[in-house]
C-alpha cells in the first residue's frame, strides 16, 4: 500500500471521529471535552538479532484525551526517544544495536491515535484502547564512528544509508497498538497515574515474519486542563 493511500485512510478516520464528536456534543467547548496529559517512563524496543532483547530508553510524551461520549474517547498522542541501530544483512532490516556495535544514532517521534473505552468509578478512571501508531525516525551516523570505516555491507556510510532507507520501506513505520491507563483525580483537579502501551511492528511481521522493533512502554501519567 502506498504511503499516500495510508495517509488518506488515517485522515478519513480522524474526520469521522471529529464528526461524531460534534454530533454528540453540539456546541460544547473543546476544553470541556478534552484533558491534556504528559507522560514519562521507560520503553523497550526489541531486536531480532538478540532473541528479542533490545534496549531500554526513556520516553517523554504528551497528548489529548478527547471525549466522544461518556464512555468513548480518542487519545491522539506523541512521544520522543532515542535508539542505536545497525544493519542486519541476513534479514535486510535495521535492528536495535548495543553501544559497542552501533552504526547510527536515531531520534524517534512516535505519533499514535488510539480509540479508548473509559471506565469511571468516582475519582478513578481506567482507559482501555487500541489504535495505530506512525514512527518517524531520523538517523545520523554515531558521533564517534568514522563513516569511512569498514562496515557490514561496505563502509559505515553505506550501512547508514540502508538503515535510514529501511525505516520507511515495507510499512516499517506503521505500528498497531493496544494501551491501558489508570489515573486518580486529586482535589486540585489534576489526575495522576500510569499507562501501558504495546506496539506491533507491522512491517517486520509482513516482510520478515519476525518481531523486530516491537515496542512497549510503561509511563507515569499526569492529566490536566
Folded structure, characterized:
- A hairpin with a 5-residue loop joins strand 8 and strand 9.
- The chain is an alpha+beta fold.
- It is 20% helix and 50% strand.
Characteristics of this structure?
225 residues; alpha+beta; 4 helices; single chain; 10 strands; 10-stranded antiparallel β-sheet; 20% helix
Give the secondary structure arrangement, pairings included:
Elements: H1 3-25, H2 30-33, E1 34-45, E2 55-69, E3 72-74, E4 77-88, E5 93-96, E6 104-121, E7 124-141, H3 156-166, E8 174-185, E9 191-199, H4 202-207, E10 215-224
User: What fraction strand?
Assistant: over 45%
**Number of DSSP E strands:** 10
Give the structural class: alpha+beta
Tally of helical segments: 4
User: In this structure, how is the largest beta sheet organized?
Assistant: 10 strands, antiparallel
Instruction: State the order of secondary-structure elements, H for helix, E for strand.
Output: HHEEEEEEEHEEHE
Amino acid at each position: 500500500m502506498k504511503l499516500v493511500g495510508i495517509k488518506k485512510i488515517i485522515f478519513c478516520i480522524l474526520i469521522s471521529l471529529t464528526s461524531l464528536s460534534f454530533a454528540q456534543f453540539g456546541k460544547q467547548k473543546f476544553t470541556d471535552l478534552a484533558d491534556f496529559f504528559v507522560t514519562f517512563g521507560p520503553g523497550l524496543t526489541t531486536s531480532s538479532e538478540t532473541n528479542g532483547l533490545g534496549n531500554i530508553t526513556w520516553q517523554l510524551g504528551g497528548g489529548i484525551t478527547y471525549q466522544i461520549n461518556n464512555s468513548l474517547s480518542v487519545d491522539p498522542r506523541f512521544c520522543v526517544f532515542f535508539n542505536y541501530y545497525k544493519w542486519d544483512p541476513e534479514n535486510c532490516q535495521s535492528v536495535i544495536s548495543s553501544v559497542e556495535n552501533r552504526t547510527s544514532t536515531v531520534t524517534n517521534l512516535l505519533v499514535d491515535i488510539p480509540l479508548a473505552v473509559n471506565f469511571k468509578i468516582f475519582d478513578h478512571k481506567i482507559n482501555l484502547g487500541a489504535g495505530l501508531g506512525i514512527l518517524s525516525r531520523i538517523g545520523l551516523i554515531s558521533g564517534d564512528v568514522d563513516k569511512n570505516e569498514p562496515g557490514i555491507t561496505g563502509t559505515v556510510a553505506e550501512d547508514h544509508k540502508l538503515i535510514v532507507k529501511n525505516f520507511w520501506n515495507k510499512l516499517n513505520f506503521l505500528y498497531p497498538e493496544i494501551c491501558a491507563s489508570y489515573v486518580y483525580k486529586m482535589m486540585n483537579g489534576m489526575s495522576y497515574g500510569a499507562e501501558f502501551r504495546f506496539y506491533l511492528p507491522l512491517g517486520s511481521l509482513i516482510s520478515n515474519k519476525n518481531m523486530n522493533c516491537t515496542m512497549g512502554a510503561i509511563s507515569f501519567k499526569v492529566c490536566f486542563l
